[in-house]
Amino acid sequence: MQKQAVINEKWLLPVSSLFFLAGIAAYIFTGTTLLLFAPLALFYIVLAGIDWRTAYWLMLACIPLSSQIGLLNGTLSTSIPDEPMMWVFFLLFLIFVSYRPTVIPMWWFSDPLVWVVILQYLWLIVAVCYSKVLLLSVKFLIAKSWMLACFFVFPLWVFREKKDYVKALLLFSIPLLLTMIWATIKHSQDHFTFPTVNKAVAEFYDNHVDYSTVVSMFFPFLLVIYPFLKGKPKWMRTILILAILFFLIVIFLTYARAAVLAVIFSLIIAGAIRFRLVNFVMPVFYGLIALLMVYMVRYNKFIDFKPNYERTYMHTDFADHLIATFRGQDMSSMERLYRWIAAVRMSRDEPVTGYGPHAFYYYYKPYTLTLFKTYVSQNPEHSTTHNYFLYMLVEQGWPAMILYAILVVLIFAQAQKIYHRFKDPFYKAVTIALAMSFAACFMNNFFSELLENHKIGAMFYLTLALLVILNRKSKQLVNG
């Protein structure tokens, strides 16, 4: 799709100036700081109307720097500035599709990955219709809609040449590095202690889990850059090596066990793709999980893992935290079991459509087992299942969980085909980096439910979108 101006360029300066002055006047009279940002918001809307590609790149660069804020006395929240930017692109998406329905090419619909995502979205609508918390579920659906429009559909019109992939890498990596440096400096002021990591990342991330997930998902892209620096000045390779080491140190200092596993799993996936073995990875993974479930449930073996309430608490030292994990005395691990058991028991009552998006918190307490209760079981932060498969099962039913399981298998299988279809080292590197990034997301998501986070969700769907685009490009090159 060619770059089209939705707004006449001659109106940019006068309209922006008018609203800038209006924003200052409104701030003077009301004292509301948020009104100062209104002119910037208008400028972005006008920019999107005149040059939406530039506006898209700007949105991508703002994702790592965005921060969550509360609205209406905490009843609503959004992340500034990336989510308002997403709203603009969701509106543009509706305009483009309404104006010219064929703007999405037919080849896009022939990709099986696209159809799994479409089926997920359609089933989400069904789950929302049967939701027990309709208003919250509708909000979830709207947020998912703009996320898909911005990062699953729009990349189709943005990523055309190699320079687009390089630009995206630079625009995302530089702001991400800035947030990492900021968080590391803040954390160093508390001597990198385990209990203070959430405070250190609070300006840009909800918690250390979100932070570690974003960092571990981006890490593979640094690894695939190194071969392309052969023959380049030594200082470039030195900077990259330092960046890789910095990422590894940061991942360790987040004290997120899932992120460490994510890095390891991403390396396993990379090796499996190179040796054409990736199609065995997820079936084996699912098989082991199924066997474990049968073993635990059939003879009630899971009861043996019940925590000692007095000895199960949050440790302030990370080494003690790891030791407690293996002993079954770590509070976060035992709380996961508490939620997982409740989720499985809940699914028996609403197996098809689930309770509805965002409903878990309001219905899970009667399904818990007091044997697994911990000090944090009151759950004041309203967190959910701490496993994305169970999250899908409880809130959207068996079809949603099965579709997610299929999606994971399909992505790795498709990435392997694309990787071996390409002869161009650049596109091979991009493909394997995307697969590794998805693998890191999958492992983090196995112990949480992260795709609704604005940073992680954007990276997740952008990964899927780029694999669809590369699938098409690799077939075109093979067919001449």
TrEMBL record:
Keywords: Membrane, Transmembrane, Transmembrane helix. InterPro entries: O-antigen_ligase-rel_domated, WaaL-like. This is O-antigen ligase-related domain-containing protein. It is a multi-pass membrane protein. Its main location: membrane. The chain crosses the membrane at residues 18-47, 54-72, 84-101, 113-135, 141-159, 166-185, 211-229, 236-253, 280-297, 388-413, 425-447, 453-470. Residues 242-404 form the O-antigen ligase-related domain. Pfam families: Wzy_C.
